Amino acid sequence: MKSINRIPTSKIERASKLITTGLKVGANYAKYYGEKIIKSEEEAKENLNEANATDIYDGLKTLKGSALKVAQMLSMEKNILPKAYVEKFSLSQFSVPPLSSPLVVKTFKKYFKKAPTEVFDSFTTESVNAASIGQVHQATKEGKKLAVKVQYPGVAESITSDLAMVKPIAIKMFNIKGEGSDEYFKEVENKLIEETNYELELLQSKEIAEKCRKIPNLKFPNYYPEYSSERILTMDWMEGLHLSEFVMKKNTQKNLNKLGQALWDFYMYQMHVLKKVHADPHPGNFLVSENHELIVIDFGCMKEVPDNFYIPYFELAQKENIKNPQLFEKKLYELEILKSDDTKEEKQFFKELFHEMLSLFTQPFHQEEFDFSNEVFFAKIADLGQKYSKSTELKKMNGNRGSKHFIYINRTFFGLYNLMHDLKAQDIKINNYESL
After folding, report:
1. Distance of CA 390 to the CA centre of its chain
2. Which residues contact 308 (CB under 8 A, 6 or more apart)?
3. 173: pLDDT strictly greater than 50
4. Quick one: angle between helices 375-389 and 406-423, nearest 10?
5. Closest listed residue to residue 382, CA positions, set 405, 399, 360, 351
6. For strand 302-304 and strand 276-278, is the pairing parallel, antiparallel, or unpaired?
7. Average pLDDT score over residue span 323-329
């Protein structure tokens, strides 16, 4: 893959790139309207989605940073986005054009006053993995094989202006509508800013790895502060397949269940015991070792779960509470889903919407064991997502619903469910974390 010699860093350059992408999308729509005359609606729409997905991704991948991160997060919206977008945007998880060697050297000289070959015994000039915020190089030091993550120049500084430009995409991604969205949008911005702080990621990585090492079949790299900085992060090189690659191979159900239990225990232990969770559960952040152990390799996005959110959130996961109309309504107010100024119609609509959603989505928590290979369960989730994405009634209402904490906690659970389904994990002990 051809490397990039420079990344647009100024607001004008980055805006210009997005405007160019917008013009291409406009041209695609013009072509679509013409094709509708000579082709079926389905075929014309499929061509439109394919062309738009390609042009949008091609535009974002040269910008990198938060603009590309939006594509990465959108790739997890399997139940909402057309297939063409999911397939194209999923490339942003671990397959984007890398930064050229001179720019990598420049970053090292800025933070270590040395070239990478002076810091390490060996250092691959070409990256082995490139994503939205940084890319990974392989290095050695005193006999140890290391992974060195180098952040792209200008990524941290351009987050605020980038998000202002891609705000319409982000609003769609997080289903934020209407006025008063600043609190939600600030939550997204703050999390992206945290992801560019590799010193913070180093601390978070060491903390979570230390506290979660006792979970069976789970592995973490060691981290090296002496070879890390604000924009460079060094850890052990971990051998394994990306989770998305692993699930494409022929695997035994026993190994799939083993990995699924490790993944589920990892998230439940964080959520219920640490009250701080890895909030970026996409396949690019997990490897599978040759012994079928799950390896967690990225802790840039961590979300703390305050008690005033955690308590009512998980009270609504209990079957008896969902069936109790008075208690159910009370918890909806505590979680800011219902508001004191709601009209009678809004109150009724959102009560019914969330009752339907929670009755389905919390089913794993109503059982001792759950089968995440259950196609019926996931088909119902997909159908529900489609139902409300097309709801004309929902579009008429004030869509700013729920505490700001929903944004990353809900995405964590949707991502986790998708990974568990990709693994086709069966017989997963839901409360296994309690015995760890």
Report:
1. 23
2. 334
3. no
4. 140
5. 360
6. antiparallel
7. 96
